[in-house]
Design brief:
There is one protein chain. The protein has a five-stranded antiparallel sheet, with no helix packed on it. Strands 6-5-8 form a three-stranded antiparallel sheet, with no helix packed on it. 17% of the residues are buried. The protein has no helices and ten strands. With 110 residues, it is mainly β. It has a domain at 30-102: Jelly Rolls, CATH 2.60.120.10. It is 0% helix and 41% strand.
Length: 110
């Protein structure tokens, strides 16, 4: 296997590992993203039926699934738990979804 070099700016939505293109590493075992959010960003309420989602807040402050997260906090959401992400400050996150499951994002009504 040869070494490959990529840049996060070339990835879509910060997702760089998973069964999609472009990807720095293509696999259906896991999906990984690094994402930046400006203060005030509010994601839509959703859940996953298959994947467990693990979010590490690298910097900033946020609200997710009813929890306030500070830099260094890790929130693990099992399948079926609805959540949304609200950036209370400028934030950087690392998100891991296991297993990698395309089309496993279900929007909730509220």
């Amino acid at each position: 296997m040869k070494i490959k070099k990529h840049n996060i700016k070339d990835m879509i939505g910060g997702w760089f590992v998973g069964s999609f293109s472009p990807a720095a590493f293509n696999t259906s075992d896991v999906e990984i993203a690094v994402q930046k959010f400006s203060a005030g960003h509010r994601g839509k309420l959703h859940h996953h039926k298959i994947a467990t989602e693990v979010t590490l807040l690298l910097s900033g402050r946020a609200r997710m699934a009813g929890h306030i997260l500070d830099a260094g906090d890790i929130l693990t959401l099992p399948p079926g738990i609805s959540s949304s992400f609200e950036a209370l400050e400028d934030c950087v996150t690392v998100v891991v979804k296991h297993p990698g499951a395309l089309n496993d994002k279900y929007m909730d009504e509220h």
